[in-house]
Specification:
This protein is α+β, with helices and mostly antiparallel strands. Helix content is 56%, strand content 25%.
Length: 177
């Protein structure tokens, strides 16, 4: 009987190290999963943060473009063409409520005046003197440095008033007046 007791004790002593090694392997595997999860969530947080910054910069750039085009439209209502002081005033006007952004704005005439046929329903068939303009803006978020640049081209059409008289006269002749 004594021999059997000794063999059992030897078997128990040999298994104690195996449990420790298996436990360490499982812990290392779990640590790998946790490290992967933390890295993944950190990368996702950075990506979402970048996307939010880019969206804010895009909205700021859109506000800047809209502001410049609106101010140019108001000036075109007052006079036929813009002079250098008008362009400078429009370029220096930044949209309100965007204090955390730095804007670089430009407004330039990109094509000299040319006579073209008007398109669209309201003035179709009339001759217009058309200027092509380009508004460009770069909005940079001061905190993150995210930058968005937008460009918009638009036309400034001038229709000589005598064309309306001719259209009215021809309409009157057709109507028998």
């Amino acid at each position: 009987m004594e021999n059997q007791d000794i063999e059992i004790k030897k078997t128990e002593n040999g298994e104690n190290g195996t449990t420790t090694i298996i436990t360490l392997l499982i812990m290392m595997l779990m640590m790998g999963f946790v490290t992967f999860a933390l890295t993944r969530s950190s990368n996702e947080t950075i990506a979402v943060s970048n996307e939010i910054s880019e969206t804010k910069a895009l909205f700021a750039a859109q506000a800047s473009i809209e502001n410049m085009v609106l101010k140019a439209d108001v000036k075109f209502e007052e006079k036929l063409t813009l002079d250098n002081s008008d362009v400078t005033a429009i370029q220096s006007s930044i949209p309100s409520n965007y204090t955390e952004f730095t804007f670089t704005q430009s407004l330039a005439k990109t094509r000299d005046s040319e006579i073209v046929d008007a398109t669209g329903q309201q003035f179709q068939g009339l001759k217009v003197l058309r200027d092509e303009w380009q508004a460009m803006t770069t909005a940079k978020e001061n905190q993150t440095g995210v930058t968005v640049t937008l460009r918009r081209r638009f036309f400034a059409n001038r229709i000589p008033i005598f064309q309306f008289g001719i259209v009215m006269a021809s309409d009157a002749i057709e109507a028998g007046i």
